[in-house]
Amino acid sequence: MSRMTSESENGIxxxxxxxxxLGEEGNYCGSANGGVVLKKGxxxxxxxxxxxxxxxxxxxxNWNAVQKHSGLxxxxxxxxxxxxxxxxxxxxxxxxxxEEEQLIIELHAKMGNxxxxxxxxxxxxxxxxxxxxxxxRIKRRQRAGLxxxxxxxxxxxxxxxxxxxxxxRIEIRNKSQHDTLQSNSYGIPNVIFDNLTPxxxxxxxxxxxxxxxxxxxxxxxxxxFQYGSIMSPIMHRQKRLREATTLLSSFGGGMKNEFHLFxxxxxxxxxxxxxxxxxxxxxxxxxxxxxxxxxxQGSHTLANGNFSASKPTSEAVKLELPSLQYSESDLGGWGxxxxxxxxxxxVDAFIQSPPTGTVESECPSPRNSGLLDALLHExxxxxxxxxxxxxKSSNSSTVTPGDNADSPGLNISETEWEDYGHPFSPLxxxxxxxxxxxxxxxxxxxxxxxxxxxxxxxxxxCKFGRSAECYVKSESVDxxxxxxxxxxxxxxxxxTSPDALLDSGWLEHDSAYGKDQVIVTDAVExxxxxxxxxxxxQMAAGASVNHGWGHSSCSWNNMPAVYQMYELP
DNA sequence: AAGTAGCTCAACCGCAATCAA
DNA sequence: GTTGATTGCGGTTGAGCTACT
Length: 569
Fold this sequence. Notes:
It is found in: Nucleus. Residues 35-87, 88-142 form the HTH myb-type domain. Residues 383-418 are annotated as: Disordered. It holds the Pfam family Myb_DNA-binding. The chain is mostly helical and 569 residues long. The protein has two domains: 2-87, Arc Repressor Mutant, subunit A; 151-500, no CATH class. The protein has helices at residues 45-58, 64-70, 76-87, 98-111, 115-121, 127-144, 151-175, 197-202, 214-234, 237-250, 256-274, 290-295, 301-307, 341-352, 366-369, 372-388, 412-419, 428-436, 483-490, 498-504, 522-530, 534-542, and strands spanning 18-19, 38-39, 190-194, 507-509, 517-520, 551-555. The strands form two sheets. It has a four-stranded mixed β-sheet with strand order 4-5-3-6. Strands 1-2 form a two-stranded antiparallel sheet. Helix 16 packs across helix 21. The radius of gyration is 25 Å and the shape is globular. The chain binds a DNA duplex (21 and 21 nucleotides) through helix 3 and helix 6.
């Protein structure tokens, strides 16, 4: 509004603001003007007055009639927007309150970029306002390397998610009493994708999935880290510190740990870039596959890299991105020169701050929310639960809080991955890192301006594929990986191992389907299926993939190569 | 003090869903 | 069932402002 001060106050169209009718120039506000030139640009107070007067008389709606009846040279669309965002009564002006911010965070964690829905929960606020706020906040937080969601939200969501997952697990196990640990079925003939069906019945709000896929969220995170990797070096450290501090304070100090994390990420990111690390792949320099990397240049690294182990695909995967969108071109650094850290950062954010809130559902489904947070949160929950049930773990491939730690004795599955020539684990660094990075870091481990510890995350156990244990060695940064840290990180699931997945509950055998089949929990499904190109999705759909709330199944043999990462020779 | 980069926010744009004829 | 108009939504843009160098 204040920006309209320089404008004409008479509401009459000035020449430089007159736009051709839409029939001649796109379809915005296209039809209602009948050849009358319509004004664009900022509204004047006179125009506002006209519009207000009109709405008083005729009420809202029928916006195209505004121009006809009021003489306002604005299209209906513009009128509606102006009214909704600025003129209608009961609009709150000014900055968001802390309560509102909190609510937005919770709502976004739950809904994703459903600005209109979010606005419905914030009286007096408009979707545009919320969207702008969120995008601004997102950018700031991402640039500062902070998680999107505050940790307190994580705890709440953790508890709720745990409860929901317990319900889910019960139902799954009711379907199958198989001992999931017995089967070492790498040649998985079929994969059953198990959505978190139980949630459906208790979720009052089940929108059409916005298709905020795991990969899109990962992309979001990855691209978010582009801010870290690209912006950070540009941004002066002082500014970064200030921003981060500001954001920190906005969360009541609960972000210390995250803040701490971030500073590490920045540096590692830079360092990793300087090493041309092929993010998201961690790889052992002695076993890296140059051919593979070459093929994937310019392609969608996440999709190709993480999911196409042996058959790199050249297909670009166009992902639908959430609000904070970045085109593939934005991810230009995804090639061999990409840093491993973006994902890690995002993962950190996601894991530390899974979706929360009970705005519309007490048991938000990861798929429903469309947020990877939920997905990862599930994994985290599962993994934690499994770790507690250590006695259950009989298979050597099971990742338990100890065998994961740096020991040269890799678990079976890991070795087998290697033997079977999958240069990278199915989920690669992505997933593995997720679990190795979600351990909170105590704030006193390093100060903000200390040389950050690359190993704090890069050194966490990155087991996958041929490269077995691969550390991202960034020689330009300190490597102060601590034993404690490693122990912490090692408690997380080794997702690259099917056995581990099985053991963790990510994959479960299901005898109900007759064959050696594996239930892939929603989280895995999301990683496996949702991240693929639409073409792949269609193929998968042809293979009985049902991306609904119920079970879905993919016939293994019919799955595109990118799906067949568990297939063994 | 000047130049510049980054930020904010209002408005635009395109698409899809809905509605009515 | 089809078509065109209307409405709603989410992503994007760009002008003005602010902070920094």
